[in-house]
């Protein structure tokens, strides 16, 4: 360090002033550090994390934002515990001073699966929470009539219990960067940091359409295409079965489309199953029309992978697996089946529904081969229009009730992928009739009932 000449002096006044200057400088450097330590110590001393970040997410957006929220708080030295909303108990609410909620809305303005237990168990009760300070980041989409309804309901319930908002609820329309920026700003303010890192989602990268094949020629339903993609440059990134991709179509750069990945990294490519959307006037959907019809093989598209933790195998990898789905929902289920084959796990039961067997048995050859080789222990199909009366997967499930009970007794996990409207509700009702509502709720709590429904 270089000292200016005039500091090296014998004058007592100047010496005192200099010493005071150093002390002030030292305090300026030390204070943030002390504050940081104090915050850490507060968490450590009580043996609990100081803050909770609770998320309820269906396809991972809220979960990702919750992790980023926690990372920002930790950077400021605040102890944080991240958990799913379903894991938040009454006792946690009563013994925690600060909880940040990051929740999305599904169905007809409902809680996502990860929040259903909390909504049913706690939001129907009165709990005194005057000590609790909270904030809500509500994710949704204004295209739905009940915009952010679950986030709103949670906010209202917390207020009614006497909890105090740290700041007003922030509603996020379709992952609006502006609203998320507002939340980040509020957090930085609360945490006393100005150095919160940027929250960029993984960047879109160029991928090439390597192959494309129509899966259901002459189908009575919309065309379904199998599309294979590989990175235009660099190596294949990693993902797990159950994960999703977001694809940007040139005609609508503001709204990336999400698709379940139908392959695993060992396949060397991302496989997607895309149903071509047709408008009433016969024109094709902007994104699906481009992916299935307009873009030539070799065309580069902007794509990014998205973790979908709720639909991954995770600790169900060693359990028997019951895979239930319809239509393009076979994509996510096929990803899991491929992961299971690779792991040498043959205890798989697939229940799949579509319209007609001759046209709509997507990946039929492959699935029958799995059945023949014992990697698919059971295969039950429901082709709704192959007989006079309509038949759906939920009907087949009811017919197979004894087998379902037995598989669940043997610790099986249930994965449902496909349409929310007709299928997921019907399957849920059938499961509740067969296993009992409490049985299904218990499976959900144990992570043994997972859904990717849209
Ligand atoms: C089947 C379906 C139903 C939805 N219903 C609603 C709704 O009723 N209200 C709303 O604001 N958003 C609704 N959304 C939009 C989601 O809340 C929004 O996409 C959110 O970013 C998803 O976050 P997540 O990935 O954390 O679940 C719906 C989305 C889907 C796919």
TrEMBL record:
This protein's UniProt keywords: Electron transport, Flavoprotein, FMN, Membrane, Transmembrane, Transmembrane helix, Transport
GO molecular function, a single term: FMN binding
Ranges annotated as spanning the membrane: 15-34
Organism expressing this protein natively: Pseudoduganella plicata
Enzymatic class: oxidoreductase
GO annotation, cellular component aspect: cytosol
FAD-binding FR-type domain mapped to chain residues: 202-314
Lineage, opening ranks: Bacteria, Pseudomonadati, Pseudomonadota, Betaproteobacteria, Burkholderiales
Superkingdom of origin: Bacteria
UniProt xrefs under SUPFAM superfamilies: Ferredoxin reductase-like, C-terminal NADP-linked domain (SSF52343), Flavoproteins (SSF52218), Riboflavin synthase domain-like (SSF63380)
Record protein name field: NADPH--hemoprotein reductase
């Amino acid at each position: 360090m270089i000292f200016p000449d005039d500091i090296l002096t014998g004058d007592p006044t100047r010496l005192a002033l200099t010493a005071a200057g150093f002390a002030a400088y030292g305090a300026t450097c030390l204070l943030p550090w002390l504050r940081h330590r104090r915050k850490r110590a507060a968490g450590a001393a009580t043996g609990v994390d100081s803050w909770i970040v609770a998320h309820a997410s269906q396809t991972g957006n809220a979960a990702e934002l919750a992790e980023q929220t926690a990372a920002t708080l930790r950077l400021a030295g605040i102890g944080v515990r991240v958990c799913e909303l379903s894991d938040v108990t009454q006792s946690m609410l009563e013994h925690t001073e600060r909880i940040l909620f990051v929740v999305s809305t599904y169905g007809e303005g409902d809680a996502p699966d990860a929040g259903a237990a909390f909504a049913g168990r706690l939001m129907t009760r009165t709990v005194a929470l005057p000590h609790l300070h909270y904030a809500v980041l509500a994710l949704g989409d204004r295209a739905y009539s009940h915009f952010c309804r679950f986030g709103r309901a949670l906010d209202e319930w917390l207020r009614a219990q006497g909890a105090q908002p740290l700041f007003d609820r922030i509603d996020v329309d379709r992952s609006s960067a502006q609203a998320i920026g507002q939340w980040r700003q509020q957090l930085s303010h609360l945490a006393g940091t100005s150095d919160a890192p940027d929250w960029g989602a993984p960047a879109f990268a160029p991928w090439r359409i390597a192959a494309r094949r129509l899966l259901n020629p002459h189908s009575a339903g919309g065309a379904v295409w199998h599309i294979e993609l590989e990175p235009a440059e660099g190596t294949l990134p990693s993902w797990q079965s159950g994960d999703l991709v977001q694809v940007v179509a040139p005609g609508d750069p503001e709204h990336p489309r999400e698709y379940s990945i139908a392959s695993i990294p060992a396949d060397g490519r991302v496989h997607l199953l895309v149903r071509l959307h047709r408008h009433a006037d016969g024109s094709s959907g902007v994104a699906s029309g481009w992916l299935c019809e307009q873009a030539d093989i070799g065309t580069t598209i902007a794509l990014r992978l998205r973790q979908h933790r709720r639909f991954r195998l995770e600790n169900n990898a060693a359990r028997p697996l019951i895979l239930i789905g319809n239509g393009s929902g076979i994509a996510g289920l096929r990803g899991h089946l491929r992961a299971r084959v690779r792991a040498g796990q043959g205890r798989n039961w697939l229940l799949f529904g579509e319209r007609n067997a001759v046209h709509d048995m997507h990946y039929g050859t492959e699935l029958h081969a799995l059945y023949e080789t014992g990697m698919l222990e059971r295969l039950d199909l429901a082709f709704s229009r192959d007989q006079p009366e309509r038949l759906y997967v939920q009907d087949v499930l009811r017919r197979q009730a004894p087998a379902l009970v037995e598989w669940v007794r043997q610790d099986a996990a249930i994965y449902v992928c496909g349409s929310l409207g007709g299928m997921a509700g019907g399957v849920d009702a059938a499961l509740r009739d067969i296993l009992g509502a409490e049985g299904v709720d218990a499976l959900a709590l144990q992570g043994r009932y997972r859904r990717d429904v849209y």
